[in-house]
Amino acid sequence: MTRVFVPRDAAALAMGAEAVAKALAEHADVVRTGSRGLFWLEPMIEVETPEGRIAYGPVQAADVPGLLADGFLSGTAKRLRLGVPEQIPFLARQTRLTFARCGIVDPLSLDDYRALGGFEGLEKARAMGSTAIIETVLASGLRGRGGAGFPTGIKWKTVAEAEGDRKYIVCNADEGDSGTYADRMMMEGDPFSLVEGMIIAGLAVGASKGYVYTRSEYPHAIATFDTALEIARAAGILGGDFDIEQRSGAGAYVCGEETSLLESLEGKRGQVRAKPPLPAHKGLFGQPTVINNLVTLTSLPCILRDGAEHYQVLGMGRSRGTMPIQLAGNLKYAGLFEAGFGVTLGELVNDIGGGTRSGRPIRAVQVGGPLGAYFPPALFDTPFDYEAFAAKDGLIGHGGVVVFDDTVDMAHQARFAMEFCAAESCGKCTPCRIGSVRGLETVDKILAGRDVDANLELLRDLCHTMKFGSLCALGGFIPYPVLSAMNFFPEDFRQANRPVRHIDAAA
C-alpha cells in the first residue's frame, strides 16, 4: 500500500489530524509523524510517490474522499496540493539542523532515526572521550537555548572537573514561555534526538543518570517520550552505563528556573535556591549537575556528527549555530522557523511570518516569553542575536516571538506582566513577592487616571528594585515588558478610567 504521513503532533491533533488518519487508514499505509511546524497548514499530510513526498494541507477528514478520487495516492490531486515539502517557501528558507527529522520520521522508529543520521554523533563521542567532547562543544559556540545563553561547553567543563559521588544530567523541558513549543515538537516528533544528546552529555561529564523535567500540560509529549525511553532500553541504548527518567512538573512557571526545577525534582516545593553554590558544583541531590534546555541537548547530535566547524560557521557574533524561532500570536504564517542567528526581527514577522493574520498593522512584538520586552516596528532592524537584543534591553529567551496588531493596549500588557509575576512568584524573595503585587496595584491606579505622573515614576522605581534585587530571573526580568511598554508606548498609560482587562496567559 502507498505510504501516507499524517502528523500526530499536538498542534495537528488540535486541527483534526486524528480524524484524517482514520479516514485514510483503509486506503493507505498511514505513518504517524511529528509536525514540520507549518501550523497554518495543519493537518499537513504527505504522500510517498516515486518522485518523493508530496504535501497537501490543511486537510480535514471531509476532504479525504475527494482527494482520493482525484488521485491523491499518486500525488496528482490538485486541490490542497502544496507540492514537495522542502520547496514550500517557509521551509525552503530554513537551515534545519536540530529539527531536521521532525515531521519526516516516525518518532518511535529507531530504524527511521538511524536512517537520517541518528546515533552517528554518539558513536563519534564514544570514540573521542570526555575531554575531546567538551572541546568540540566549546569550539561549536553552542550556548544554552533556554534563555540565559551561557556557553554549554564551559558548564560541562565545570561539572566534569567537580568532585562528587555521582553526577547528573538534567534536561529542562518545562517550556512555560508564551509563544513557545519547540520542546514539545521535539519530544513528540524526534524523541531519540534528546536521548542521544543526553547520553553524549553524560559521556562528557561522567554522569550515569539523566532526568527530563517536562511540563504537565504536555500529555502527548510525556507519553511519546516515555515510550521512546522503553524502546531505547529494550535496544540496549539506555539502562547500562546511562539511563534516563522523565518527571512531569505541576505547572509552576518558576520551576523553569534551574534551581527551582532541582527542588521540584527532589520532591520539594519549587523555590529558588540561593547561588552559590552553583548546580554545577552542588545540584541535584547535592551532586554536580548539568542542567541544559531541551533544544541545547538536541543540538548536540549534529554537532558531534558533523563537527564543531559545521555548526560554528552559522550565526553571528557570539551567537553561533541555529535557533528554532517560534513564531506565534497575530501572524499569518505562525510556526517553527529554524535558522542561523542574525535574521532580523522585521524579516521574521513581516517576510517569513507574513504580517498579521488580522490584516492590521503590527504594533508590538514580544520576544522571550512573558519576561521579554515589547519591541515596536522601529526596532525591527534588530538581528536575532543574544547581544543585539540585550543591547536594546530585550531578551531572546527560548526563542518565542509573539506578534500584536494595533488594537493591543500596552498598559494592559504591562499590567499583565505584574499580574503574572504575582501569580507565579515562588515567594522566597521580597522584591519579587511584594514588588509584583505593588506593581499591579500601581498600574491599576494609572489605568484609573490617579496621580498618573507620580505613579509612573513609582512604577519605574519599583521595576529598578525588582530588576536588581530579585533572587532569580522571574522578578529580575519582569521589568523588561513593563518598562518597554512604558518607554515605547507612553500614550497608552495616559488614557484614564479604563476597565481592567484580565489577559489569559495561555492565549
The CATH architecture of the largest domain would be 3-Layer(aba) Sandwich
Distance between the ends: 41 Å
CATH homologous superfamily assignment of the largest domain: NADH-ubiquinone oxidoreductase 51kDa subunit
CATH fold node name of the largest domain = Rossmann fold
Summarize the structure.
With 507 residues, this protein is an alpha/beta fold. It is built from 22 helices and 16 strands. 40% of the residues lie in helices and 15% in strands.
Please tell me about this protein's structure.
It is a single chain. With 507 residues, the protein is an alpha/beta fold. It contains 22 helices and 16 strands. It has helices at residues 10-14, 17-24, 64-69, 89-92, 110-115, 120-128, 130-140, 152-161, 182-189, 191-205, 219-234, 258-265, 294-298, 300-306, 308-312, 345-352, 386-391, 410-424, 430-447, 452-469, 473-477, 479-488; strands spanning 3-7, 29-33, 45-49, 52-56, 81-83, 168-173, 209-214, 243-248, 289-293, 315-316, 319-320, 322-329, 335-340, 362-367, 374-375, 400-405. The strands form 4 sheets. Strands 2-1-3-4-5 form a 5-stranded mixed sheet, covered by helices on one side. Strands 13-12-16-14-15 form a 5-stranded mixed sheet. The protein has a 4-stranded parallel sheet with strand order 8-7-6-9, with helices on both faces. Helix 20 packs antiparallel against helix 22 (479-488). The mean pLDDT is 94.
